């Protein structure tokens, strides 16, 4: 637009120059001049119109430039506002939020205080209501007089409570004494019953002792003679199982005054108590002999079996064979426990003919289990 303005200004200058030239020319022709003047006037008018329009455009252009400058300034201000003012506003917003939070905390605290005051007010109203009821009940309208009256009533109530507690305590003691007396009476009845039972059993014991003494008096010598005879089962088993038959082969049984049976061993000069002279192996043989003879001869027990725990302890190989023969010939059911697997195999070997009647169980104490370990696959029943 500035370029157009310059062109128009140049055109105006040229027209002005032509006018001046025509006016100064000597050969000026008035008619021609008038004709030219009209034409020029038309052009001038046209140029003036164009000039006005141009001025208007120039003003418009200037306004536009001014607006552009203001817009540029506004943009600069806007940029500065967006880069700096936002931070300030954020900071102010943060401060306002903090202030709002403080105000909210104050509001909460005030609300709590109001609630506490409301509760206290309710308590006061409740206490006041109670106080009015007390005034009405006791026909008193003075707090001091009411306190004195209530203290007096409280003291009287404490006295009554003490009396009641003493009464309850005495009643409890009476009940305890009654229960103790009942227990004592029950125990006295039991003691009398125990005394009666004791007397009954003492009488029975005395009768049994008298019977034993009578039996010993009449049969003591006969029992001793039977045990010392050559047909005595104890002597028979002992002589068969004795690991050293050439030594201490003769046994002697003596019934003492206290009805105890004492086993002695005969030697060349006298009889010696077996415990003092026999070895551990011989004592074991003697114990097994007494045990087997007693169990094979008894007739008072309902159970017809013999149970022996480790019968071969302290025995040599010869005695093991002997005890196996003796045990194999017993008619009763036999139960043996042993940890010696060699002796177990020996017993099974010597009783192969009746293996079907034998069960051998291995006990596993760690797993709390047992199983039969006898192999019956090769057994042929005869």
Describe the structure.
- The protein is mainly α.
- Among the domains are: 2-104; 229-372, P-loop containing nucleotide triphosphate hydrolases (Rossmann fold, 3-Layer(aba) Sandwich).
- Helices cover 71% and strands 8% of the residues.
- The protein has 8 helices and 7 strands.
- Strands 1-2-3 form a 3-stranded antiparallel beta sheet. A two-stranded parallel sheet has the order 4-5. The chain has a two-stranded antiparallel ribbon with strand order 6-7.
- Helix 7 (317-328) links the parallel strand 4 and strand 5 (333-337).
- Helix 1 packs antiparallel against helix 2 (30-138), helix 4 (233-241) runs antiparallel to helix 6 (280-297) and helix 7 (317-328) packs across helix 8 (341-350).
- It is elongated and about 190 Å long.
- The N and C termini lie far apart (146 Å).
- Mean pLDDT is 73; it is low at 26-36.
